[in-house]
Amino acid sequence: MSCLFYGAAGCRAYGFAILYTISPKNISSQLFTGTIDGRLLALDADSGEVLLEFDTVREYDTVNRVQGIGGAIDAHVIAAGAGLLLVNSGYGQVGGTSGNVLLAFRPTEG
After folding, report:
1. Is this prediction's pTM over 0.90?
2. How far is CA 17 from CA 1, 8, 20, 58, in A?
3. Residues 6 or more apart from 52 whose CB is under 8 A from it?
4. pLDDT-based confidence at 64, cuts 50/70/90?
5. How far is the C-alpha of 59 from the C-alpha of 77, rounded, in Å?
6. Which of 26, 52, 25 is nearest to 39 (CA)?
7. Which of 21, 78, 79, 105 could be joined to 86 by an S-S link, Cβ 3.0–4.6 Å?
8. Are 27 and 80 a contacting pair, CB within 8 Å?
9. Which domains does the chain carry?
């Protein structure tokens, strides 16, 4: 599924065309990117097939006990290191959902 164009099936509509605004991160033949509507995507680097889709727009229990809310993935790049994928969720400056979380993902073994 692609939300590059307003009105694509299954996409949240914001009234503007491009929902991908950050550069993808390439890790082990997978591209990780985020969308204005708050989805984290892992794509096969060769085929573009969606391997993982995670909706970050929700409430989170946080390590510092501050109320955490996910939102738009925009303006900040996705980072990786020490076995983690780090994603800022909640940049609402250009029409996306505001929030305040830094999400850390670790690959599952197996």
Report:
1. no
2. 15, 10, 9, 24
3. 40, 41, 42
4. very high
5. 22
6. 52
7. 79
8. yes
9. 25-105 (2.40.10)
Q: Tens digit of pLDDT for each residue in 12-32? A: 544 444 456 678 888 988 999
Q: pLDDT digit string (tens) for 46-59?
A: 998 999 999 999 99
Length of the chain: 110
Reading the block at residue 99, the tokens are 């929030």
**Residue entry with tokens 């929700």:** 58
Task: State the SS3 of 49-104.
Answer: CEEEEEECCCEECCCCCCCEECCCCCCCCCEEECCEEEEEECCCCCCCCCCCEEEE
CA nearest to 74, candidates 6, 14, 7: 14
Phi and psi angles of residue 84, each rounded to the nearest 5 degrees, phi first: -120, 150
